[in-house]
Queue: 4 jobs
Job 1
Amino acid sequence: MMSDTTSEDHYEFSDQFDDDFDLQDPGNFDSDNNYFNIVNMEHVKASERRTVAEIADLFSIMVPMSTILLMAYFWNREKLSEEYIEGRALAKVGLTDADLEVQRKSGQKVQCSPRTCPICCDTYTRGFQLACKHTACIKCYERYLGEKLSSGDLLSTRCLGQHDCRLVATLDDFRELSKDLESGYLEKTAASYLQSHSSSFKACPGPGCTSIIELTSSLAMLDLDQYMVECSCGKRFCLGCKNDWHLPIKCDLASRWMNINGERMKNNLWLDKNTKPCPKCEARIERTEGCNHMKCRTCHFEYCWMCMQEWSAHNGMFFKCVHFQPSAEAKHSGRATSARLKHYSIRFDSNIIDSRRDVNVRDLTFSSQQVLNKAVPTLSYTRRILAWTYVLLFYVTGSNQKTILETSVSDIESHAETLAELLAGDEQAAAPCLELSGYLETRVENLITHALETNWKLDRNSLTYTPS
Amino acid sequence: MSAPQALPKRIVKETQMLLTDPVPGITAQPHDDNLRYFDVTVSGPAMTPYEGGIFKLELFLPQDYPMEPPRIRFLTKIYHPNIDRLGRICLDVLKDHWSPALQIRTILLSIQALLAAPNPDDPLANDVAAEWKENQPKALETAKEWTKQYASP
Ligand SMILES: [Zn+2]
Ligand SMILES: [Zn+2]
Ligand SMILES: [Zn+2]
Ligand SMILES: [Zn+2]
Ligand SMILES: [Zn+2]
Ligand SMILES: [Zn+2]
């Protein structure tokens, strides 16, 4: 029997990320609850081995056969048990009860007097046979099972020795042949187990990361659209679609947005990350701080980084910048959607970039630990929420609810702006920073709730838009 | 163009067997310029609507044969629930149940058996399968007509 102690190979999320995460994602995780654990592949394999052992016990079959049957039923124990009792499960992998008895033994390498391999027709003296004792040359077996491994097809690894033999090569046979084939087999079965449990295991999409997010049953039942995690490698992603997290919108809209914007974001076609020409004198201006209120060093023009209009035109409010007004001629043409897309894309990109940049403020100015721990993550979180709120604004049609959302966005934008300016400033204005952070947290939380709970009417042109 | 590779021993042996010891009702002739490409004929089994017909097929042995199954397709039009308009065949041994221990000979026998025992529950040609299930006498009649029209020697 397998051991039940697996707690050593994972740790609770809250031990590691308590402080940070609580701020990053207010309202969606209660750090007292353990919604998920970050585990590694060994943990998944241990869980797989327990399942295999249980089924093997239940039907008094060998572990390798239990593995094959479970894979054939995509790890659905209940269905397998039901059909096994009804005598239908073995047929699913092309076996009979008699075959099952033969398969209790593993295959073996054999040394023999020269004979012709039925597969390659070469003469061989080193052969391999499954428990049926039908032999083929060892090279053919290694190649055949190697190819089965790379195609991931472990259910039809048939006997090579005789064309009407039904026996399948199991883990035991792979092990008899070579260490590599055995470990390859174990990798594949674990991958199959992981895939079949995709509602409770989420492999981290972080580059090079092998961690797996294991959801506890309470979270696995919920709508994952709204749950974002941070892996131990630092990657933050949506549990629903595994893309970068995208609150306050659902996976469907987020992936539509990425479909039409992913390429542009890679190439930065519309927004050179940190440099844009000044709208007045066209001097290249590099933005080093995270705020949108820009002053040109060449001509001293004050303007908004996002809409490139004169700063005073905003009248201290971001509403004008947030709200998109299509130009009269674009309004009734097919270009309207494209213009809308551009409007919201610029705001999306700019906030995404800022949400990354603001984190770097850490190293630059403030020494107050409290400010670093609270204001910086809050600002970064706020920017990200704003970015995805612009995506929502692109997709929804005009309504009172949309106007309310736009008002919140403009209020949050201007306060985030102020916070960014304070953080970039020289004086260590700790108290106002903390106060602003608290305000933003509340506002952002309300915005998320509003965005998620409103039954938005979506704009058909936006939904079906494809860039030409 | 890459240099032509030597034909694997397995294919040479199978080809010899097919030519010297042919299966009754089946012929398979490799092309002179491509020894992996075969012209195949299968005669319709007795007591079936395909009786009297000679059906032409093409068979190709991919680079990875016998790890990969042969590719095979009817060239003659045939009315059969497991064979579609393009001549593609729905047969488990050509897909999931392929084993390198099977041979061209065994595959062609399976195809002959499929003509004798159509399986409308696992159809490739859905319209034909529907007809087969709903109005079998009419389906058999159509199959017979097609045999006469397209597969007469
Ligand atoms: Zn061999
Ligand atoms: Zn065998
Ligand atoms: Zn990770
Ligand atoms: Zn998602
Ligand atoms: Zn200027
Ligand atoms: Zn603006």
Job 2
Amino acid sequence: MQSARSVSVVLAGSGGAGVMTAGNMLLEAAAHAGYYALMTRSSGPQIRGGEAAAMLRIACEPIECMEDEFQVLAAVDWENVQRFNAEIPLGDSSLIVGDPDQGNPPDVFLKSGAARASLPLKKIAKSVPEGRANMVLLGALAALLGLPDDAVARAVERTLGKRPAALAPSLAAVAAGRAAAAGIAVRFPLSPPPATRAPRWLLTGNEAAGYGAIKGGVRFVAAYPITPATELLEWMAPALAQVGGTLVQAEDELASVNMAIGGSYGGVPSLTATSGPGLSLMVEALGLAVAAEIPIVVVDVMRVGPSTGIPTKSEQGDLNIAVHGLHGDAPHLVLAPNSVADCLGTTQWAVQLAEALQTPAIVLSDQFLGQARSVVDRPEDFPGGCSRVTAGAGTPGYKRYAVTESGVSPMAIPGSAGLAYTADGLEHAERGTPSSQASDHFAQLDKRRRKLTAHDYGARWADVEGEPAADCAIVTFGSCTGPVREGLALAAPDGVKARLISLRLLAPLPALQLLAALEGVQRVLVIEQNQSAQLYKYLRAECDLPGRATSLHRPGALQFSPGEIRRHLLEWSRA
Amino acid sequence: MNEVACNAAPAPAMRGPNDYKSDVKPVWCPGCGDFGVVNALAKAMAKMALEPKDVAVVSGIGCSSRIPAYMASYGFHGVHGRALAAGTGLKVARPDLTVIVTGGDGDGYSIGGNHFLHACRRNVDMTYIVMDNRVYGMTKGQPSPTTEPDWDSKLSPDGTGLREFQPLVIALTSGANFIARGFTGDPNGLAEIIEQAVRHPGFSFVEVLSPCVTFRPEQKEWKKIVKADALKPTADMTRAARRLLRDTGFELGVLYAGERPPYAPRGPRALRTPSELEARFAL
Ligand SMILES: Cc1ncc(C[n+]2csc(CCOP(=O)(O)OP(=O)(O)O)c2C)c(N)n1
Ligand code: SF4
């Protein structure tokens, strides 16, 4: 049987079946075996204990999205699993593995023409003292993919480290599953993993963002829980304490953002994280941070909107509110990580930029990036760099909002003698005293814009890849980058060549850099995951895109797949 | 931060109340009660010999919320209703500072009402001074949560018909650790209350009767109605609650001085460097 460089597997089952545990172990086992891997999860509408699906992709190369088809759908039982139909595309070369004692797989899956294999998971589990069906399934899947015993054992040991009593029965159940899989003729062996192995990490985008924030210097966080940002805050709570920082749970997002602003006014780099509904509540305070020039970072882990929308699914619909949501002329920073690992570097960069430019920074992550667990190469160390410019105690004639050439004015930190001032959201004169003079308004508006536009953002404004000489270019951002990159590679054999620009800095839009990267291009395709082409319209408003600029956009709930992108690129290249 | 030798400032013991006021001229109407709060606050600060550089006065929006700029300490004039949130963040991030949050009844009890409840129960070590004039002064005369139900105004002709918000009752039941009422017409008494409030650990709440002479000129009569020293401090919540049953809203003094330990975020078992956190991601 031919081996594959990428295999995708789903583990599904009803609440309590333990498919998430098994999925996580399979992900870790793949990592120990030397593969890259990515896992997303889906669950029913029940608050707790509903049906669940762990969707994994395991590959020889770094991966940032799921594939178009799953090779294996394996279920402990089929209760309500058809609910995940749209998320689990199968093909006629796929395999459905089920327990014959749990009934037939739902028709929606059988329709695909996939082959079927039966494994009496519960019976096998019963034959092992304390054995569980999910561990039997884990063993069977490891066998189908050709993952070595020791990698699986290590994953099981790491997970159950704190419950040694569960370890032996689990390993026995895994072995029983592996043995039972011998009867399945169809296999999906993975090609050997890359020979050289740089250090790898296993983490979610939310964890990466939390760690990036700490690396960037954040030591105060105010938190109000909201899916899918909660884990970021929960990860930070103990981690922040370990580095001497503090997290406060606020009563709502109006409080959390204002607390963060208060902490930062006190000189401590501060952050909060939220999702669309919370960001909506925060915009007034973000305007305050702009006007009073107080650095803060808000990580918006975007979910499907508007309103409560679909809290557990991804969409890039918050670009408009992030860029344009503030009233008045309120220049600020908007950044977007474009992979799970990049959540680290981009959040760290956001903290540094916010601090250096004394302004709020919104980091547009999303549910996919935030909650996908991923095996990645250890992210490159992103060197420190910019930090807050503070005023030395006793600076004579200190003016908090002095109009400087760079637009950045040294900030006095409470506790510094001789510099007391009032941070104010009222328009002010250079000293900080309220002013309704047009001249002060002009001068302060201008300085607040200048400090952002004059800053040298270096090469990190975007990831520019693809064919540098191509006369077509794709511009995208965030979690679309993974499927676009892969879709472009899939379209290459059909002659599609394009530059790929994944914007990391969305506001202020680095129009000059973007236009330079698009130099000589005849056609531009802007790809994003929302209904109204928010990025496309924003780019067209801010700069004169060369050649013919078109848009590929559709709303979320489902991520773009590489094949979907490929199909669009083929059409685009022929149009 | 490059430290430069600091300006010759008066030594703490030598500072008088005026050294705690800034040179910014208040925008308030002549006779506004809020002038009395600036005076009382400055007096209390002088009495405690606080270093202006170590004090931050935080506020929201309203006439009363203009106060930070009038003090010589650090100031923060944020958005309407969120002063307690900003003050909480500041105090938790910088426990070394003395944080005094200020504002009006609209700012604190209406738009910021939720933060008031949670500031009381969170019990962060800071002081909250509300200048209650039972009206929205800044927006020119609309009823606030403490306005009498039959007070006639353009926005609520013939009155709101709504029962008044009871700040002291709410503070007590929500867990504020120190609760008092002062009057701007009695700056010495008010200064004393503010001093006690600042010194008392945990969340201290001072409701200040501060007349709006422009939109509620009848409040000029308050000086005839208030009863100085009518409230006596107790650490017994039941006694304080019983006292409030007889409250007319014009008794001055300290109602409650509790013993609940202030908010203290739990520290870590061991400090680590940021890079040590990476171990949890490594395979
Ligand atoms: C979000 C928001 N809504 C409304 C306003 C308008 N506004 C400014 S001050 C104020 C009420 C102030 O009343 P109060 O807090 O009692 O203070 P006072 O002016 O009486 O001292 C209002 C409604 C605002 N600034 N921001
Ligand atoms: S309107 Fe009322 S509260 Fe405002 S400054 Fe004038 S008197 Fe004071």
Job 3
Amino acid sequence: MDGEQAVNTMTDVGNRPAARRGVFSRRVSGILEPYYYVSPALVLIVAVMLMPLILGLSYAFRDIRILNPFSGGFVGLAHFQTLMHDSAFLGALVNTAWWTFGSLFFQFTLGLVLALLLNRHFVGRRLVQALVFLPWAVPTFLSGLNWAWMFNPVVGPLPHWMVSLGIMETPFNILSDPDLAMWGPIVANIWFGIPFFAITLLAALQSIPGELYEAASIDGANTRQQFFSITIPFLAPTIAITLMLRTIWIANFADLIVVMTKGGPADSTQIVASYIFTQAFRRLDFGYASAIAAVLLVLLLAYALGVIALRRAMTHADS
Amino acid sequence: MASIEITNARKSYGAVDVLHGINLDIQDGEFIVLVGPSGCGKSTLLRMIAGLEDITSGDISIGGTVINDLQPKDRDIAMVFQSYALYPHMSVAENMSYALTLRKTAKEKVASAIENVAGVLGLNALLERRPKALSGGQRQRVAMGRAIVRQPQAFLFDEPLSNLDARLREQMRTEIRKLHRRLGATSVYVTHDQIEAMTMADRIVAMYNGIVQQVGTPLEIYDRPANIFVASFIGSPAMNFLEGIYQAEGDKAAITLEDGTVIPVLPSPQAENGQHITLGARPEHIDIVQDGSRPAVSSNVELIEPMGLSTLVHVTLAGKPVKIFTLARPDLAIGSQVQIAFNMDKTHIFDRQSEQRLLPLNEPRHTQQT
Amino acid sequence: MSTPGNSALRKTVYWGTHYLMIAAFVVFALFPLYWLLKVSVTPNDILYTEGVRMWPSRTTWDNYTFVMTQSNFPHYFMNSVIVSGSTAFFTCIIAAVTGYAFSRFRFRGKIIIVALMLITQMFPLVMLIAPIFRILAPLGLTDSLTGLIIVYTAFNVPFATFLMQSFFDGIPKDLEEAAMIDGNTRFEAFRRIILPLTLPGIAATLGFVFTAAWSELLFALMLVSSESASTFPVGLLSFVSKFGVDFGQMMAAGVLALIPACAFFLLIQRYLVQGLTAGAVKG
Ligand SMILES: Nc1ncnc2c1ncn2[C@@H]1O[C@H](COP(=O)(O)OP(=O)(O)OP(=O)(O)O)[C@@H](O)[C@H]1O
Ligand SMILES: [Mg+2]
């Protein structure tokens, strides 16, 4: 040292811990550490979701009817063969596409518009934000009942408004018209689902650094150019992931349909998820219901993987 | 207080080796500065000492005890982070007493320790504030205070001053130095600022690419850099480098530059005639010779930067830029020729291949480490 | 370029449109709730005759008094509070530790667990009812609030975990490292330093899960058969069968049931946006 006499003002020197307390044990506990944290979630998910899923998939190959004491045997692919010729199922498949993409399109566009509106500062924004997000908190079956009520020409205002707007000749309940019935649950679903998109997109919007817009406006970009050159590219990843997750979620979401139309009239609003429900709990045929569910799961997985592959291909093409 | 020994410490992230076998003995009470460019592994080494990163292989011991496998909390060290890492939901006093309360220190003892340290750092008026309500410099002091109250075996600093403005940084530099003098605690200080390294260190550890390039006192490092990296990294304005060929005859030696200019140097037993070398000379070791009193070479004036106290003259020699530092205020015209002379005793030669410095005859081989 | 007058006009038009659209969204969001309220205060005898009027000529609290005093509703309500509250509580704890691990550790099994969590979001849940019943029945967890809490917690953990992770991602790692050097183990540092800093995130997650559990109908209907363990959505459906379809009472019950969910949600929706933003910044 360079001749400097250090003055020690320290009083107690900490206890020197014992040397090498098992190299091995610390290495192992270091590797295991993350698993201590995730184990409760893992146990729960495996026990309450994964095991039932596997059990459920096995039902698809068995004859399981609750009220029939002789059921329970393996039937191989019989359910799937029946399914191929089940016109109600094929109809439900088409309806599912309608229901999903009809709801999704409006939920997304209106959610995006709402997020953009809320992303500007204005008087009363906090209050407005709280109010417009409220539908998300309403129990779905309650909103289903309420919307069914509002579509009813005797007790609801909607048919009368549509007549005044000239969309309808005389007030009638669209929920009982096989051609239009699907729009009932879709409207309810749009109402319920806008907040989800608005919240996620608003969060994404707020994470765009403000300097980007400043830089762009200095470069002479007008509002529209800024929207397409900054906002949309920044939102793209959020949009892609939420659209995908939401598609799957809506395809599985039968509550509103079960409450509002029970799949009717004449199966015109029967989607696959509600069809499963009908098979399982009206006909008590769990084997067949599980077979349908398995097909739906496979279709949704294929859809998800397809979207992911497409995205990957597109980002690779870009770069 | 304790010494720290690092033997053959390596660190890899998967297939990427970040530290390639570090050996370092830090004396009890020494103030060591780890310096090097961004990404060279300084923080990684410091965090290995702290226990925040696993040691891939090798040993680190504090006070003679190998601490490789101890939790950070059992190593009895304190660390000051670049971001300060003050607990936002605690007051200044709570931040400083946190470690002591965890050690179940008696209340009165904690209170007096805090009062003591707050007095030293001038934090008395701020004790009840939250970190959010402090300025950058105050936060820095609190972070220092939090480390000091613990009276640990060693202090670790990871670029603690880099978020401060120039003036405050200068002030804190002296203050940390004074504190060290007072506490005498073993300290390892990471920075990429060579001025901090020069002014604060008892010994500097210059690192590059996960390898210790040289260990030595600031002046050793400055005067006798082990290789081109250390020579170029330490010193501002930076050392000038020129490429040429070594030629020696008897007790005289010289470098012939690409354009035939000959510059005399001290002969080195490590160099051979005809060897490709890089010549290095600090700007203050090149003189402008206007009266022909010394043998000199001719160069072309490119730019003159007056800096008040001194002047920096940019010239070209053999097609390469050369900076000259002078306390005089030479009267030169841009574009004119000027005679310059290299201070032979202070001019270094480096092997161009290995980039190691070739030592002159009478210099002992010490402080070298690769 | 444009004159000042021109740009002022443009500004007025812009903000006019802005507020108009905002108003449209607010009306769209609130009108159905308003209608719910309206039906619940309409006396039974004019429910159908004045069905389409914007506000009935007479109003009454009868439906509310009936629901509160004559029906099982307060009991259902309590069950729902217990189930949703416990679900929110346990989900938050589990999601917090899991989200923390996702945010701070790199480990081999992570990608598998994340994939598992994503796939669980794709299940048609209906399909799980029978198998879950099968698994819970021998444990005595069917027809019990505990069983419902376990199932709800499992269903909510994946999303809550991703939400919590995004909050943790917004908190610098230096903080728990400082705490670990100060003398904490990692878990203590997590509990004493990191968790207090994520309180808004925890509030958001609590509210989110509470609302979700509060609304759940399918499993509540299928796993519970006795009156004593029914939650409020099931109870609400029982209005349909028991009293004929007494819409007034049902809507009154609905309005009452809305109150806790909405109150909770109003409190936390701001943090929800903030939390998602914090995560997004990190990438
Ligand atoms: N988790 C990691 N995985 C892979 N590589 C890493 C990781 N952490 C650090 N590195 C690499 O290790 C090297 C050394 O990093 P380190 O942070 O020690 O540099 P540094 O010398 O402190 O630089 P700076 O002055 O910028 O702080 C860098 O090249 C970095 O990219
Ligand atoms: Mg660093």
Job 4
Amino acid sequence: MKLKELFDRGEFVISSEVGPVKGAIPRDPDFVPPCQQEAQHLNGSVHAINVTDNQSAVMKLGSLAASVRLKAKGYEPIYQITCRDRNRIALQSEILTAYSLGIDNMLLLTGDHTNLGDHKEAKPVFDLDSVQLVRIAAELQEGRDMAGNPLMFQPDMFIGAVVNPNFQPLDLQLIKMHKKVDAGAQFFQTQAVYDDRVVDEFIAKAEAFGRPIQLGVVVLKSPQMGAYMNRNVSGISVPQAWIEEIGAAAKGDRKKKAAEMTGRFIKKHKSKFQGVHIMPLGWTDIVPDILAHAEIAPPRPSAG
Amino acid sequence: MHATIQKPIEEIVNYIKPGEKVFVVGCNNCAWKCHSGGEEETTAMAERLNRRGVEVVGSTTPGQRGMSLCKLDHTRKVLREDYAEQIKKADSFLVLGCGQGVHTVIDATDGAMVHPGCDTIFGGETVSDTDINEYCSLCGECVIEFTGGLCPMTLCAKSLLNGPCGGAENGKCEVDSERDCGWILIYERLKQLGRLDLLEGYREPKNHAKWSRPRTLKVSPHEATFCSQAGKRTVSNQD
Ligand code: SF4
Ligand code: SF4
């Protein structure tokens, strides 16, 4: 199902995120790969699940294989695809392949640089940027490839893109967001945000684009994680107040505290967005609790 | 200019077979500026090789300061006329210059054995006597009219054309916290110039056929023809 249907109905769209395994999926039909295990924890709490594409440039199982597996098990994947590892031929072909394998939603990104990952000597491709990729995906849906050749059958998917509200100068990030909208982006997910002011400054300008936006939140599990993200995760900053609040909770209480903090933040801002994208970093079991704190009714279970 | 850095001496010595007689050629333009193959480094290289048991039959940095090794007719004349005797004895040439210079020596000697003595690292601006920085990646299709003269192909680690990725932090690139984000530099410059309008609008993907290698350029006082896998493009420099 395309998330478009949910946004069009005015539903508050809840998504979360899983990463494919470092390795193949065994042929044993009873084997449950980790991404599917995580999806099971999220069942009933979210509408859709992002599947990351060699995130942080760390080589893993392809996002398409994992997306197809989740789809087969009844979950709604948001297939992520980045410009880092494929040229324009491969990117277009992947989009056609994804549609042909039943994928309905995709999120198109630039991708983290190879230098951040586990194959630092790889040739970074970046043949296209994310704006160009969105445009080309939209053109494929219109029945032609980027060279102008007609397609025999065209894909039909819901096209998402990302935006980073933390980016300074924000206006430069918004110029790019504007280009993505013009290129054909149908919905947005934001990078993780923790700061009320950042949310408000961003949404005041971004809502004018008239596209559904999901607020991105990453569950802050510990003060160490906050310090680590501030040091190492590009484009995200965690305010000191968050770090202190999670640090003040006893270790055994941190899951509860994290759910409360994340839920509180979502609750405060949910009316400004059309959905939320929760990145629980393995604490998938607290997602229902987060939604409860945010006073958001979870969607009905979709899979078994 | 072409920025070069000498290869480690052990690597160079390893290229040379026992008993092989070597002639060392430097470049009095770019490699001189890089201290990788000017007159001093070329003479020194001959001595360094000698000290390591390599027989050096001669060395030169063709021409005055500012003369490029890659100017074939000049290099050929110097090697053939001024160094005819030494060259006869040489089994190979160690070139302290860029890859173009190495090829120039192949052409100038009608196909002699050559060894690269440098790594050619980029085309750069000689910002000062000590600093050479890369501002252009020689892509064959210049887009910097739209970026205030700052090259996104080069200054952005991902060569993005339509604006920054989300990864910059405190103005620095996600790839290297010591290096400015190229797109923030572009934005700040255009803002200062009052030309942020240049950032609006979609920028098409690069025509990488113009970046195909090898490429050639035919030049005359009237016109020039650039030849790549994108085809031939002739442009007049008169009208
Ligand atoms: S756009 Fe191409 S030609 Fe122009 S400065 Fe950049 S790399 Fe050089
Ligand atoms: S941080 Fe800036 S320079 Fe670095 S890859 Fe992103 S846009 Fe390019």
